[in-house]
DNA sequence: AAGATGATCAACCGCTCAGGC
DNA sequence: TGCCTGAGCGGTTGATCATCT
């Protein structure tokens, strides 16, 4: 109806709208969002209703901070698939693609900006791969040396190719690796299949030496921050000198 | 205390794709 | 075959909150 379309609402949802949407879905189920919006008496587009339900009202939506385990998995999966947020979100039950996308744009891209490089650049990918991820592993493991964490991360982590990585239940039994990233993946579903080998999570062979950008003695001398934030001002400064 | 600035995240927009007719 | 509709995805915006000066 034309009058109804003119009155379509946008912007933040009210409690009443939320209640109407939840009640309707509880009785009738989801889907057919345009007609659902009309039948539920909501002056919203079907698209808006779908988004509100999926990203906020669904009972299994998980809120709160992204844990180090989740951060590690996000970094790992993004290195494989890039900005394919919905695909990445499949590995985080209760997390929405929107939430993961926001995390990446705010936290991860912020670090890239600090380092004055592009988040999609090889330089930044190296920082993520060789510095950030090992540090997260350290934190997840409750301490230990950086080198041992990196070694664990690098040696036992299998390669997963785009064609292999179809997150489906029948593939989950193959996830029998001792690597940290893999054991993390195993906590989530759907789980990616694996194939063995001494490969880096990105799929390529683990390099014999670190990239040139990080092959400098100061890095080994660096005192890693013990606080909540993985990156200190000194970290940023040191890395910037290498770029 | 108040304004400026930055970070976060809910919501919107434009586009693509699949399925039905 | 082409059109329409529903659904989903990724990029972007804007409101709100926190922190800084």
Automatic annotation (TrEMBL):
GO terms for molecular function: DNA-binding transcription factor activity; sequence-specific DNA binding. InterPro entries: EOBI/EOBII-like_plant, Myb_dom, SANT/Myb. Residues 5-57, 58-108 form the Myb-like domain. Its main location: nucleus. Residues 7-57, 58-112 form the HTH myb-type domain. Pfam families: Myb_DNA-binding (PF00249). Residues 160-202 are annotated as: Disordered. GO terms for cellular component: nucleus. The keyword Transmembrane does not apply. It comes from the Eukaryota. It is found in: Nucleus. Residues 168-189 have a biased composition (Low complexity). Keywords: DNA-binding, Nucleus, Repeat, Transcription, Transcription regulation. This is MYB protein. It comes from Zingiber officinale (Ginger). The lineage of its organism: Eukaryota, Viridiplantae, Streptophyta, Embryophyta, Tracheophyta.
